[in-house]
Amino acid sequence: MSDVPVRITRRRFLQAGAALGGAMLLPGVMGAAYAAGSDAPELNTVRVGFIPLTDCAPVVMAALKGFDKKYGISIVPSKEASWAAVRDKLVSGELDAAHMLYGMLYGLELGLAGKAHPMANLMTLNQNGQGITLSSELLESGIRDADGLAKRVAASAPGTYTFAHTFPTGTHAMWLYYWLAAAGIHPFNDVRTVVVPPPQMVMNMRIGNMVGFCVGEPWNARAINDRIGFTAATTQEVFPDHPEKILGTRAAWVAQHPHTARALVAAVMEAARWIDASPDNRRETARVLARRAWLNTKEQYLTGRMLGEYDSGAGRRWQDAHPMRFFNDGDVSFPWHSDGMWFLTQFRRWGLLTADPDYQGIAARINRNDIWQQAATAVGGIATPSSLLRTSTLMDGSRWDGTRPAEYAARFAITR
Length: 416
Prior knowledge:
The chain is α/β, with parallel strands linked by helices. The chain is built from 20 helices and 14 strands. The strands form four sheets. A five-stranded mixed beta sheet has the order 2-1-3-10-4, sandwiched between helices. The protein is globular, with a radius of gyration of 21 Å.
């Protein structure tokens, strides 16, 4: 417990008593009791950073729908300009937690994305839902996919073509590298890669700074609408049901505020469940996110892909089997150790790590399954997976199940 005194008014005391009285009857109501019990959140206000992307939705909706108040906290979303800004403000303590790239948090832990800081992954915010966009100029020249791009790159001098991602150790860098390499394109030797903040992707492609990028929505849909690019691949085509953004923070913050961390995860988890509960809830979420305070864009850029309805901008339309998911009976939010370990294998593959790390030990240290479990119990109706590992088959046929990670990292023909 914090040694800071908790002040409770008579009204708050009576409200808490009522919550306690019904806690044994309704799943999730137990969370309301924390505000007056020994498990009270140490902080009343939690400042959570986010980048204007569709997958910040659970953080925003937790604050706007009042799920945070249910667990005794007030979430204050803080709109940030770039992932580097999120990193700096989180490390300095200006932010309590943040909507973060999965690989970014692991990079921070290992000192690959700035000075090393002990970090904590509280939960996964979403799976799937990112995209790889190629320019309309490439489409007009007959290039529609990775194979066509590979032929063009092979016939050009190294570095002729530039591609953008959002952060050196981030998810978008790893999806872009994997997609290029699967087609035989070396992402470091054959092409040039640069870092561009998500909201600046479309503008930079419009003025010709790159011919392709990997980013979250709605910026792939926006590129199609602005007629400057098309979706060559979704990231769920690269890695079905892949982990994407997480709710990250510093390990020290969790140690100092464990009850606040639990309350934060419970609120965001409940918001994620609400979003996924119906298409109407997803439409409402898209309407909210489009507002100036959040993404500041048109609702139409968000709604289709929020519903899994895709138009590539190059004549292909489909209902995606692996759309952006936020909850999926709690499986999305679970801090799977194999998810974190996969990013470590890619850091090893691309030379960000010069030796194999302690894959299992690092994942166990960062992924706070204890906090997730406490939050899931508070929310109610969420089953805990029987294993910390899950199995996936990626676009090149490789099978990832979290076992033998060093062997997996060494299996690729194209490495750095």
